[in-house]
Design a protein that fits this description.
about 100 residues; about 55% helix; mainly alpha; about 10% strand
Length: about 100
């Protein structure tokens, strides 16, 4: 996740503007809130890049076992997040567009 740091004068101005409306607001709390927004945006972006196996099978209009074979044969790459298995949406799009090839 690459972001540009918010300049201190901007942060100071935002804090000065919000402080009268939020008595408990501190510069540290404002920084934490801004960071939380950036993290949430990044997680939403990543979620759009991955598909569940069920979503991938439906998108490709194939059965779940066929998708399993494609994963086993490395036509598609498994992306593991803890115990869950996902497929990259870009890999699914590549197959649909005829650019997908079996990986060694």
């Amino acid at each position: 996740m690459t972001t540009t740091a918010i300049p201190e004068p901007v942060k100071t101005g935002v804090f000065a503007s919000l402080a009268p409306y939020r008595p408990g607001l501190t510069p540290a709390k404002l920084d934490a809130a801004l960071d939380a927004v950036l993290v949430a945006d990044h997680e939403r972006e990543l979620a759009g890049q991955l598909m569940t196996r069920k979503e991938a099978a439906a998108t490709l209009k194939i059965s779940f076992p066929t998708l399993g074979r494609m994963l086993d044969e490395r036509e598609l790459e498994r992306v593991r997040v803890r115990r869950r298995v996902f497929v990259r949406a870009s890999d699914v799009r590549a197959i649909i567009e005829g650019r997908g090839e079996a990986k060694p």
